[in-house]
């Protein structure tokens, strides 16, 4: 991972400043995560609107797929036109993740280095090591990466467009959580905690927004009746 020393120093400074107030690095990580989610909220809200539009144009996408099933180039061209007309950016969902990535990398180097004390703890685990809930022989059962897998899978499920039969998307729905498990399983738990809290907050936000829109739709239907 590409290291930006100035950003690492800034993250360490913020963590230490919050630590001096709350007295625990784990709580400091959670506060940093909440602040980060607040900062990127406008982007995630825009992402959610884009997801809604993707659902709305899915029937048109299915028609194009059937009409140009023997002409992939024309299908790609017509799909791009449909996205442009609907104001949809299929890559828009990547932007919040890309913005958070430098912070994630900076946290990784902060916990791999000497800036954070080796004995910094939160709940049952030491933040500079995997969380190790318990041991099965020589195998360490790390809970936080497994929780990350669950949250990532649920997010993928919620983001899937209804009626979508794209095999590549279905594969990603299962492969992404497995990749997360391998990436995080031996990572410092302080970094995993950040990703877990961020994912949980994103999932909660997504659920509230989707539920709110669903309720609005039901209310409108009742009024129409």
TrEMBL record:
Give me the segments passing through the membrane.
Answer: 25-45, 91-112, 132-151, 193-210
Keywords from UniProt, A to Z, are: Cell membrane, Chaperone, Membrane, Protein transport, Transmembrane, Transmembrane helix, Transport
Q: What is its main location?
A: membrane
Matching Pfam families: 60KD_IMP (PF02096)
Q: Locate the Membrane insertase YidC/Oxa/ALB C-terminal domain: which residues?
A: 25-210
GO BP terms in the entry: protein insertion into membrane; protein transport
Query: Which cellular component appears as one GO term in the record?
Result: plasma membrane
Q: Which InterPro entries match?
A: YidC/ALB3/OXA1/COX18, YidC/Oxa/ALB_C, YidC_ALB_C
Q: Which CDD domains match?
A: 5TM_YidC_Alb3 (cd20070)
Compartments where located: Cell membrane; Membrane
Which membrane topology describes this protein? Multi-pass membrane protein
- GO MF annotation, one: membrane insertase activity
Taxonomically, the superkingdom here is: Bacteria
Family assignment? Belongs to the OXA1/ALB3/YidC family.
Q: Which PANTHER family does the UniProt entry name for this protein?
A: CYTOCHROME C OXIDASE ASSEMBLY PROTEIN COX18, MITOCHONDRIAL, OXA1
Name of protein:
YidC/Oxa1 family membrane protein insertase
What is the source species?
Answer: Leptotrichia rugosa
């Amino acid at each position: 991972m590409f290291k930006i020393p100035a950003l690492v120093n800034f993250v360490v400074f913020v963590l230490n400043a919050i630590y001096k107030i709350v007295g625990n690095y784990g709580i400091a990580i959670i506060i940093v995560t909440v602040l980060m989610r607040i900062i990127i909220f406008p982007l995630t809200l825009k992402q959610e609107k884009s997801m809604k539009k993707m659902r709305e144009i899915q029937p048109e996408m299915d028609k194009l797929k059937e009409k140009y099933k023997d002409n992939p180039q024309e299908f790609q061209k017509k799909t791009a036109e449909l996205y442009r007309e609907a104001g949809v950016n299929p890559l828009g969902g990547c932007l919040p993740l890309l913005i958070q990535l430098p912070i994630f990398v900076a946290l990784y180097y902060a916990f791999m280095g000497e800036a954070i004390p080796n004995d910094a703890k939160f709940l049952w685990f030491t933040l500079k090591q995997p969380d190790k809930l318990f041991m099965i022989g020589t195998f360490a059962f790390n809970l936080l990466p497994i929780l990350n897998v669950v949250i990532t899978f649920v997010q993928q499920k919620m983001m899937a467009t209804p009626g979508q039969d794209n095999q590549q998307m279905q594969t990603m729905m299962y492969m992404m959580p497995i990749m997360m498990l391998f990436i995080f399983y031996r990572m410092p738990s302080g970094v995993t905690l950040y990703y877990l809290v961020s994912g949980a907050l994103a999932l909660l936000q997504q659920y509230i927004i989707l539920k709110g829109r669903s309720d609005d739709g039901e209310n409108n239907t009742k009024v129409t009746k």
